[in-house]
Amino acid sequence: xxxxxxxxxxxxxxxxxxxxxxxxxxxxxxxxxxxxxxxxxxxxxxxxxxxxxxxxxxxxxxxxxxxxxxxxxxxxxxxxxxxxxxxxxxxxxxxxxxxxxxxxxxxxxxxxxxxxxxxxxxxxxxxxxxxxxxxxxxxxxxxxxxxxxxxxxxxxxxxxxxxxxxxxxxxxxxxxxxxxxxxxxxxxxxxxxxxxxxxxxxxxxxxxxxxxxxxxxxxxxxxxxx
Length: 226
Description:
The protein has 3 helices and 6 strands, in the order αααββββββ. It is elongated. By secondary structure, the protein is α+β, with helices and mostly antiparallel strands.
């Protein structure tokens, strides 16, 4: 089975071959047309008399215009083929981009559902982890904690398979209206912290290839007040 890479490679080889043919034919057409002009100028016949009606242009010279016309026609056909090949390649690339975009639009609801389930599993894991830090827990509890962690990581791996990656926000980072969704405003008397991230509740998710956001990170933001 011919792969897409092999097809692209074959198309490139054909395009290169056509371009080489064009470059090779151009001097030939130029030379033939020059010979035609020179021959016509050199052999411009005088007005024939009744006694002498012998053609003054040889058969070889007479064929030059016809050869030049044929070569020019071939050159035009080759150029036309090159143009059509270029258009076909552009259409193929645009179709692939459209199919990729359409596929992502179709699975977008599924990806958002996976993100919501990841949030639930990650929140449960954090809750039980903090609880285990404060008091000793049974073996069953520890096993349950590990299961929640495994589920969270598995959902992240699944999102990664579709080119979706999470991003966290550090405390003190600048607020971005594009990437951040404000959950709570925290007042501060430190002017340097104004419109800085105080904390974050949920990480954001973006498409690695396009940079498009699937979800903003949910944060608390500082607001300076005197």
